[in-house]
Amino acid sequence: MQDPDKFILENNIHTVEVGFADINGVFRGKRLPSRHFLKIAESGTGLAKAPFAWDIQCGVYDDIELANFNNGFPDMTAKPLLDTLRKIPWREGSAVVLAELVDEHGQLLEVNPREVLKRVLKRYSDLGYRPLVGSELEFYLFDSDRKPVFKGIQCYSLYRGAELEYVIQEMRNGLEGLGIELEAFHIEYGPGQVEVIPEYGDALEMADKTVLIKNSIKEIARKHGLFASFMPKPWPGESGNGFHVHQSLWDLDLKQNFFQTDKALAENYLAGLLKHARDLVVLGSPTINDYKRFQPNSFAPTNVTWDHDNRTVTTRSLLGPGIGSRFEQRSGSAAANPYLIIAASLASGLNGIENKLLPPERLEKESVQFPKTLDSALDYFEASELAQAYFGEAFVKLFVTLGRHEVELYQSAVTDWEWDRYFEII
Hints:
Layout: H1 4-10, E1 15-21, E2 27-33, H2 34-40, E3 45-48, E4 75-80, E5 86-87, E6 94-102, H3 113-126, E7 129-142, H4 158-163, H5 165-177, E8 182-187, E9 193-198, E10 201-202, H6 203-223, E11 227-229, E12 243-251, H7 258-261, H8 263-276, H9 281-284, E13 306-308, E14 315-318, E15 326-329, H10 338-354, H11 374-383, H12 385-391, H13 393-412, H14 416-422
Parallel strand pairs: 1-6, 13-14
Antiparallel strand pairs: 1-2, 3-4, 4-6, 5-6, 7-9, 7-10, 7-11, 7-12, 8-9, 12-15, 14-15
């Protein structure tokens, strides 16, 4: 464990951010003077439970049992995970540390998405398995008028990438300075669209890093007068922002990749991914906007499919003789909470192993379609026995309740499309 006093002194830190991801994956917390941070470094700092009872715009509801106006939004405690304490390279004298959250009884908050993922990982470790995960995350860069920073599609263009180096370089170096090792940044398949790929690692660590990646990219973009948006489908006719989850399964000492050496185990895992893809799709696609992303010929699959090295299917198999043998789950969007989208894949795969499921023959088209709306996706999730068993009844109820409120807000909204279509002519 890192010595916080030594770290603060050696790095001339005056401010420490104590942060965590809420239900929506938004990075929240407090900024503390380093003097006060050292006082609470072990005991933690108090704040309301509201981040686990509100929507993306901090709207609160009386039917959320955890925190509401009737019980007065009681406190929880954010306890710094000191081994995650690190400097923020682009803000001199500032540092950030992730926190675990405990309730008034000193118990870990079970609906915290980080704890949801940890419970899934405990099942793996009990069986002698250690999942490794990689994130691929897409986002759009907009100028101050919220227009894309370049027009047209120039995927992998080094020329367009060079135009953006003034901001991408700071993102890349800043993330490396945070201790997040990267494979690449590159231009993606949309006007102003970029993809960031951190290096493969332990599942929980990868989720932690992805939360920091999203927050850091948005902050650095604003520093340059830009907006970075991870919105799933910013406009029709252009690529959506995906969150692809690469995954492999190892022994506890990382000496053997079972997807390289155990064909039967890999098939069981694949079958689990496919069986539960529809039921858990909402954990990777949690917003109203997500379901406008699932369009034919858009690199976002519309049904449950798999194939070898095929970027148009739900589950891309990259099994092979090398230690990089893995699966890539491609249905999620950049709006997903990193802990939850990773938990969804890992829970599905483990269920396939535990029940020795077998996948269908390699298919590019499959009869199981993804839901077309958030409301429908929530129905599947709520009915999922796997979700109840792996994520806990309390979390499932909370997630579904908040999702239903999102649907209600959308259904009551009057959109620009309705004005344009009906105002004058009807």
